[in-house]
Design brief:
A six-stranded mixed beta sheet has the order 7-6-8-4-5-11, with helices on both faces. Strands 1-2-3-10-9 form a five-stranded antiparallel beta sheet. The chain is elongated. The chain folds into four domains: about 1-115, no CATH class; about 115-205 and about 210-275, Son of sevenless (SoS) protein Chain: S domain 1 (Son of sevenless (SoS) protein, Chain S, domain 1, Up-down Bundle), CATH 1.20.870; about 285-360, Phosphatidylinositol 3-kinase Catalytic Subunit, Chain A, domain 1 (Ubiquitin-like (UB roll)), CATH 3.10.20.90; about 380-620, Ras guanine-nucleotide exchange factors catalytic domain (Son of Sevenless (SoS) protein, Chain S, domain 2, Orthogonal Bundle), CATH 1.10.840.10. With about 625 residues, the protein is α+β, with helices and mostly antiparallel strands. The protein has helices at about 5-10, 30-45, 90-95, 115-125, 135-150, 160-170, 180-205, 210-225, 235-240, 255-265, 270, 275-280, 310-320, 375-385, 390-405, 410-420, 425-450, 455-470, 475-485, 490, 495-500, 505-515, 520-530, 540-555, 565-580, 595-600, 610-620, and strands spanning about 70-75, 75-90, 105-115, 285-290, 295-305, 325-330, 335-340, 355-360, 555-560, 560-565, 605. The longest helix has 26 residues, at about 180-205. The protein has 27 helices and eleven strands. About 55% of the residues lie in helices and about 10% in strands. Mean pLDDT is about 80; it is low at about 1-30, about 45-60, about 90-105, about 245-280 and about 365-375.
Length: about 625
């Protein structure tokens, strides 16, 4: 346990060799604020601990910044652990504070672990307002804020966060009267966090009832404070914009409190609430599987509110059969069959199909197989060969980009920590993973359902070109899927087919394969992807693998304290998704594609049974 003066020495970067009675010179406001923090913590009975790297004895050598920790204890238990770090401060900021070159680096404290309440309290204390925005300290503060808001669902509920923020906004010191300037700064820091939270997670929070009630309560408090703190007028306007309000009254400047209650009651959820659940769900698109045999299906992109008749029509058009002769049946998992009527909804409220969907012929009452006739298979292959490879790549990329661009970076957090509990929060992410798997199976299905050797060679060359185009269009998700489909054992074993592929395409395929090489932790892919301009679509399975390693290799809690260092690494991965989605210089990823190609790629025929795929492969080229 460190003595009081020793704690001060470490707070102000003084050598441990200094004896009691040494003077500590405070250079600027930041040092004064640190002293005030130490004094406040001392009054609350908090103690400072030092994490020695060379044992418990005090040494005469100066400790590195990484070896110095500040531990805040409450009621005899650790509540917050901070580590001292050096941060580079811009020369202009250092000069404005009266420092020279020696002041270009400052010591700050990053969160190591803590209770949710103490982490939030430190976050608010560390928040910088407009004057410090753009400086190194401001950017580091925003990074901490980003880490917290992206990962808070891991250690506290949205309701708890709302209550904690209201408590910090309304809190008042117990012993002395709070200075009005300090009170305003405290309230503005809370509001700054709220604005950042709403801008970061507004789509995820759109349907949270706790957030709606929280914003209404916050509006009431901010409006009540407007008389004492006129600087909050901008925040009142921001809250009005958030609710899309129209002001229906004129402020009474002599008594603004008189009208605050009336305005508060006008904020009814019915009139000013966010979009309802049903309206939002109508805009969602999902991938729907309709089985045409026991082991193959058509994967179609449809609205979440799609009716049975609409889905049946789309699938029938893809199969070139009259929809009037077909029926759609849901196979319930206990073994029953449910005939879907034309106006029945295909999806339940959880955005899951009512059962495994099959398409049947009305007269036969059995699962149909549209690819048993050789002439139909020839026609199918001809359709694929007539499509332009660039157009196919554009259609595939547009399909993926629509989903990826709607994906929120916080989905990675939900998927990693609670994928089975909060699946509704990870729908776009799960769709992209499903699409990646289906594109891989689609490549295998198209090649293995082609009965003619020369056309099979043409198909393989076509898929190699499509993969190269997907890479050029910065869609690495589909690029990997196509290469993996061509490398699958059922396709790669077709030696007679691959021998007919020209050396030019074999060389191109070898170069593309190099990027998918998993050695050195996928170094080739990571280097190639890093050079690509945003926006771009990463290979999602590898991204989730990286997050899983972080999650499995680090504890989420240390002695009942949140391991914030782990959450910082998770937040970095989430920010990576955000960077891939951003388009600062007009490098748009979406391009126009023909309706014919789009209709083909939006509804892929897939065989998802590996045994069936191998049987088709051995039928084409029997084992010697």
């Amino acid at each position: 346990m460190m003595s009081w003066d020793c704690g001060l020495k470490y707070m102000f970067s003084m050598s441990p060799a200094m004896q009691q009675g040494s003077k500590c010179i405070l250079h600027d406001k930041e040092d004064v604020s640190r002293l005030e923090l130490v004094q406040r913590l001392a009054k609350d009975g908090c103690r400072f601990l030092q994490n020695h790297s060379k044992g418990p004895e005090m040494t005469t050598e100066p400790q590195s910044d990484e070896a110095v920790c500040l531990c805040v204890r409450e009621r005899g238990h650790d509540a917050l652990v901070l580590r001292r770090v050096l941060s580079d401060q811009s020369a202009q900021s250092a000069w404005s504070k009266g420092g020279g070159r020696e002041k270009a680096r400052t010591r700050r404290y990053m969160v190591v672990s803590g209770t949710p309440e103490k982490i939030l309290e430190h976050l608010l204390n560390d928040t910088t307002l407009e004057d410090d925005r753009g400086t190194t300290r401001g950017k580091e503060s925003d990074m901490l804020l980003d880490d917290f808001l992206l990962t808070y669902p891991v250690f506290m509920s949205t309701s708890d966060l709302c209550q904690a923020l209201l408590g910090h906004y309304c809190s008042k010191p117990h012993r002395v009267k709070e200075d009005p300037k300090e009170a305003l700064e405290r309230k503005q820091k809370v509001l700054h966090l709220v604005w950042h939270w709403m801008s970061l997670c507004k789509d995820v929070l759109r349907e949270e009832e706790h957030v709606k009630v929280f914003l209404k309560s916050l509006y009431r408090y901010v409006f009540d404070d407007l008389y004492e703190h006129p600087a909050l007028e901008k925040d009142v306007m921001e809250l009005q914009k958030l609710y899309q309000l129209r002001r229906r009254h004129t402020l009474d400047h002599d008594s603004p409190h008189r009208n605050s209650r009336a305005l508060f009651h006008q904020l009814s959820l019915k009139e000013y609430g966010l979009r309802s659940r049903s309206t939002q769900r109508e805009n969602k698109e999902v991938l729907c599987r309709v089985y045409v045999t026991m082991d193959s299906y058509l994967s179609a992109k449809v609205r979440s509110e799609v009716m049975a008749q609409e889905l049946l029509q789309a699938v029938a058009e893809r199969m070139d059969v009259p929809a009037s002769k077909m029926i759609l049946v849901a196979i319930t998992y206990p073994g029953g069959r449910l005939l879907l009527q034309p106006q029945d909804k295909v999806f339940s409220n959880s955005l899951r199909p009512v059962g495994r969907l099959h398409i049947y012929k009305k007269d036969l009452g059995e699962v149909m197989n549209p690819f048993t006739d050789n002439s139909e298979m020839q026609q199918r292959t001809a359709r694929m060969l007539n499509l332009n490879t660039w157009d196919v790549a554009v259609a595939l990329t547009n399909f993926d980009w629509t989903i990826f661009n709607s994906m929120h970076e916080q989905e990675l957090v939900y998927f990693t920590f609670s994928r089975h509990v909060c699946s509704s929060h990870t729908m776009p992410l799960e769709l992209l993973l499903q699409r990646c798997n289906e594109v891989q199976l689609w490549v295998m299905t198209e090649v293995l359902l082609c009965p003619t050797l020369c056309k099979r060679v043409q198909l393989i060359k076509k898929f190699i070109k499509i993969a190269a185009h997907c890479k050029a269009q910065r869609n690495l998700n589909n690029f990997f899927a196509i290469i993996m489909g061509l490398n699958a054992a059922a396709v790669s074993r077709l030696s007679q087919t691959w021998e007919k592929v020209s050396g030019k395409f074999k060389k191109l395929f070898s170069e593309l394969e190099t990027i998918t090489d998993p050695s050195l932790n996928h170094k080739a892919y990571r280097d190639s992807f890093k050079k690509m301009k945003s926006p771009k679509i990463p290979f999602l399975p590898l991204l989730l693998k990286d997050i899983t390693f972080i999650h499995e290799g680090n504890k989420t809690f240390h002695d009942n304290l949140v391991n914030f260092e782990k959450l910082h690494m998770i937040a970095d991965m989430a920010r990576f998704v955000r960077e891939c989605q951003q388009d600062h210089v007009g490098n748009g990823i979406a391009q126009k594609s023909s309706s014919e190609v789009r209709a083909y790629t939006d509804c892929l025929h897939v065989i998802d049974n590996q045994q069936t795929l191998f049987e088709l492969s051995h039928r084409l080229e029997p084992r010697a």
